[in-house]
């Protein structure tokens, strides 16, 4: 007589050893989001900047130099801005962690009561919430993690590396800002450079917007069109302003 386990093995229906998620989460979602943000920001910023300079100046060499300066300055600014943002988030977490640890040490019953109320609001009975909190409170480290998660909605494991996060957003800005600058380096005529810069940048903007939209679960084509319109509007406005400066 063939056992059920043997039948499962023969049919390829061997049960999993552990729980397997059918739809795994995207790894590195935070860094991917920052890369998409930096890429689109670099594109829009330098496209608009170069368009404004092109409307105001006729010297292609100066326009190229200004484009390089804008690209480098923006990349450095985004790097240090991203670094400070993540460091600040980590510092705030450590402050919250210290405060919660103090409250657990000196006001344990009040902290237990907060957890019990949280679990009762989730649908557990009084007896069930008492049992859960008693188990959690038996481990001081897990108790602190639970308090931070439920009261402050923060988890130390989800905090990002400051240098890695800043590097991603700074580098992605650099890549994005380079896209509208390349035509000015390739072509020697200003008008041709402007046309190709705008066309290539709008294509990349649509792609960056579609990517950001797909990460956020939005319709990719709508997010792409939105980003394209934002870039086109910014470039058009600054080009007009630059042209008006020339005639003023």
State which percent range the strand residues make up: under 5%
Low-confidence stretches: 1-16
Report the structural category.
mainly alpha
Share of residues in helices: over 70%
Sheet of most strands: none
Q: Terminal Cα separation, in Å? A: 96 Å
Strand segment count: 0
Name a few traits of the molecule:
mainly alpha; single chain; 248 residues
Task: Please explain how this structure is put together.
This protein is an all-alpha fold and 248 residues long. It has a domain at 58-161. Helix content is 81%, strand content 0%. The protein contains nine helices and no strands. Helix 2 (29-56) packs antiparallel against helix 3. The radius of gyration is 27 Å and the shape is elongated.
Secondary structure: elements and pairs:
Elements: H1 4-11, H2 29-56, H3 60-106, H4 108-121, H5 126-137, H6 140-152, H7 162-186, H8 190-215, H9 220-247
Concise synopsis of the structure shown:
The protein has 248 residues and is mainly alpha-helical.
